[in-house]
Design goal:
single chain, about 160 residues, mainly beta, ten-stranded antiparallel β-barrel, globular
Length: about 160
């Protein structure tokens, strides 16, 4: 006579949690941008008087996408803290805490290149191309925007993985 073992509800719930956590860990490990990144001013290029004093951003997995939190001290000494949660699907997602950016739309051009358009009032305010180095240790963000006089402002910011 064979005895059949039935899984208890606790076992089923525990197994479900293990699988869910494993899936989350796999999703996080598959996105090489997950982590904390600090601005390397010595390797970055900004227009005169526009370089921030410091900047750090953190990327964490959030469902199928990411949550990005940016903290820094601007060129004029004001502190900035802003964030967004988005997928890399080209759709607009809200940006909170940044008076110059209301939404962001991002797409992966390839495994290491992320293209983002930040909008204000429905119009492109900043376009960025973010390139992850092949060794995964740096991200170089090339940004294009316009200043209050309508003049183009370009920057190249290099961030090191922390």
């Amino acid at each position: 006579m064979q005895t059949r073992i039935r899984p208890t509800p606790l076992f089923v719930v525990s197994l479900g949690l293990v699988l869910a956590l494993a899936g989350t860990a796999l999703a996080q490990s598959s996105n090489p941008r997950i982590g904390t990144w600090k601005l390397n001013l010595a390797k970055s290029t900004y227009a005169a008087g526009t370089a921030p004093k410091s900047a750090t951003f953190t990327v964490v997995a959030a469902g199928a996408g990411v949550k990005v939190t940016v903290d820094g001290v601007n060129a004029d000494g004001t502190v900035s803290h802003w964030m967004y949660t988005a997928n890399y699907d080209g759709k607009d997602y809200p940006v909170t805490g940044n008076p110059n950016r209301e939404t962001v739309a991002s797409t992966l051009a390839d495994a290491n290149t992320l293209k983002s358009i930040y909008k204000k009032g429905g119009k492109a305010a900043v376009t960025q191309t973010s390139v992850l180095s092949s060794d995964g240790k740096t991200i170089t963000i090339t940004s294009t925007s316009t200043d209050a006089k309508g003049q183009p402002v370009n920057s190249v910011a290099v961030y090191d993985r922390q």
